[in-house]
Design goal:
Length: 190
């Protein structure tokens, strides 16, 4: 390790290719032939850059940790209700744009279902792959939603985990069902 620049408190050393700062004696200030003032300026500039880098990384980490979360309270028919009348709690965490990862918990904080949601106006509609669970955590059913309507083949299981007959929901009928149920209309438009 060769000493490149030394100052009254620190020596700048290069141990290819990483630069490090190490303590040095007070008497080596001018051994390098560079004035101490210039060395201190370099040290303070490096310290400033490291501080800015630490702040930037801290800001990025904080921004990533602060995800948008919504909590909705649902009755046994999975309809929005007040917290006092709720049988379930839906925890929605924003993933990107208007999409969310949702987990439905029952009153004992057991996971009832989990899947993806899309926000349409003020509503959150199931959209994508979903899994429903029995109270003991075994899978009850799994399949896809398209903006609030089950589509495609849904696999179903009994309470012992044995496969039941699959159910098929035609995608071409989803728009008609969505329109009839007025899923994508706001309360003002109904």
């Amino acid at each position: 390790m060769a000493t490149i620049v030394s100052s009254s408190h620190f020596a700048w050393t290069q141990d290819a290719p990483i630069w490090t700062i190490s303590e040095n004696s007070m008497n080596n200030c001018n051994l390098s032939g560079i004035p101490c003032v210039e060395e201190r300026t370099k040290f303070h500039a490096m310290k400033k850059h490291l501080t800015l880098l630490a702040l930037l990384l801290g800001t990025v980490a904080t921004g990533m940790a602060q995800k948008e979360v919504h909590t909705l309270h649902l009755n046994s028919l999975m309809q929005n209700v007040s917290e006092n009348n709720a049988a379930y709690k839906l925890q929605l965490t924003k993933t990107a744009g208007n999409t969310y990862k949702g987990i439905i918990y029952d009153y004992s904080n057991t996971i009832k279902a989990e899947g993806n949601y899309v926000q349409v106006g003020k509503k959150f509609l199931e959209d994508g792959y979903f899994t429903y669970y029995y109270q003991d955590g075994k899978i009850e059913s799994e399949g896809n939603y398209a903006r609030g309507i089950k589509v495609g083949t849904w696999k179903r299981y009994d309470a012992n985990g044995k496969r039941k007959t699959d159910r098929y929901y035609p995608e071409e009928s989803a728009d008609k069902i969505r329109e009839t149920m007025q899923l994508e209309k706001s309360e003002d438009e109904k």
